[in-house]
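Hi all, a correction to my earlier message: I attached the wrong file for Leucyl/phenylalanyl-tRNA--protein transferase. Here's the right sequence:
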Amino acid sequence: MSIEYLRTMNMWFPDPEEAGPDGLLAFGGDLSPERLVAAYANGIFPWYGPGEPILWWCPDPRLVLEPSELHIPRSLRRVINARRFRITLDEAFPAVIGGCAHVCRGDDVGTWLVPEMIEAYNRLHALGVAHSVEAWDGDELVGGLYGVAVGRVFFGESMFHLRPDASKVAFVHLARLLERWDYGLVDCQQTTHHLLRFGAYEISRAEFLERLVRLREERPAPSAWIMPEGFDPLR
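and the right structure:
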């Protein structure tokens, strides 16, 4: 199949099922909030490096996690019980995405979060669409993750850590909170051993898109993205 070119003034995306074997669907367009929300609502996300056009992807298979099926390894339970890290929501989004820009994704080191993508996700955060989870050691940000929320789906984008287990503890808190808020699915995008250990599993692109069509139209609990006082992810 041919890779579609997206014009800046048109919010249209091709059918995600037409993506190539590697998941590449289209190139071009822009990173406006309207286009990004439309992309995620259709199971599509941007991923490209410096000097490249904006590339849009919808991989097959897709790695997903149901928040209610989260598995917490025993060693990580001990870390959480030790309360090494303080976890917050949406308190340091720019710092979290900045930290993620300096970690590896696949075979690339710190290149996929180009400045215009960082700016675009900061805009989404200001609109209440993108969210972050932070892990703190005292007053120092030592890990975290960010992603995009559409309906009852959370699209995880990236995480980073400066202390062992910091991002893992943040992820456990996020998954438990998403369950509490009635989210039905976490899109993990691509398969990693790290995420498989938490109970994530692969489904076909067709199944993912079928579930997304339903969940994107539903609303999470009204308490979503407010950290409950005294929240304990192990209870």
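Sorry for the mix-up. The first helix runs from residue 33 to 41.
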